[in-house]
Amino acid sequence: MKTNQPRRLITFDWAMKRLLRSKANFEILEGFLSELLYEDIVILEILEGESNKENKRDKFNRVDLKVKNSAGEIIIIEVQHEREYDFLQRMLYGASRAITEHLNESEAYSRLVKVISVNILYFDLGHGCDYIYRGVTSFTGIHDNDQLQLSSRQQMMYGKEQVFHLFPEYYLIRINNFNDIAKTPLDEWIYFLKNEEIKDEFKAKGLQKAKKAFSLLNQPENERLAYRSYQDDLHYQASLIESNYGLGRMEGREEGREEGRKEGREEGISQGIEKGREEAKIDFARRLVEKGMSEKESAEIVGVNPEVLHRMRE
pLDDT digit string (tens) for 291-307? Predict the structure, then answer.
């Protein structure tokens, strides 16, 4: 007996780029955020900025979206595919930038906007057993170990109950740590984010509408072609990084062994590996330029000196 195969769905990051910016699909994004934040989220608008405009860098690693909800809060949703060791710092920078961008020069600090940073990660970040982490700011007494609270007047002024409500909140969703067992509505969303499948029995807010809206078969032909091209770009980039990193390590070991015979094995291997990695980065940046990216952009993405890249290409 032939079983029904699950309908193929587009990925959430592609939906963020193409579908979720439409007001008609706000319900889907509201559903995901409501399940994650445990409150009913209503999205008022998509906020455009340099970080979420389409450009050549869109096809590399990062896809993000910035929205404003009915409480006046800014929510940043970001999807990251490839490993970045300084991702926590970049996450902090993104939230800080959003705060300063939305405070006018003459406004008091009490008008600072609350920012919620939601990060969907397809790589292993740090050490931990859970697949969802929440970070908030709190102040603990050094001597009495008590938690600093807002006064009643401050609560009235800010419209907030707790100190941490004034500061950015961070959510880290480590997709690879999810065990595919959906016990809660939020788990059903995580299951979709990991497997690109929405089961008929899933009841989480927004999911069933997403099942229809994200169906690849329901997309126009030009969108299907663009989606396949986007997926190819991601695979190509992942292969380049893996290949260049492996090549750099091999070349580094070889140079390290040769230098190690002359100047000492450990120091030579270390220097050789570092040199190999740098050359691999430059080679990767050079290939990005060949695919149409500017030298400045490719150097910034890979992390090399643009002048060195320019000299290597002359």
Answer: 667 777 777 776 777 77
SS (H, E, C) the chain: CCCCCCCCECCHHHHHHHCCCCHHHHHHHHHHHHHHHCCCCCEEEECCCHHHCCCHHHHCCEEEEEEEECCCCEEEEEEECCCCCCHHHHHHHHHHHHHHHCCCCCCCHHHCCCEEEEEEECCCCCCCCCCEEEECCCCECCCCCCECCCCHHHHHHHCCCCHHHHCCEEEEEEHHHCCCCCCCHHHHHHHHHHHCCCCCCCCCCCHHHHHHHCEHHHCCHHHHHHHHHHHHHHHHHHHHHHHHHHHHHHHHHHHHHHHHHHHCHHHHHHHHHHHHHHHHHHHHHHHHHHCCCCHHHHHHHHCCCHHHHHHHHC
User: Which pLDDT does position 70 carry in this prediction?
Assistant: 93
What is the residue extent of each domain of the chain? 12-218, 221-313
Whether residue 83 has pLDDT greater than 80: no
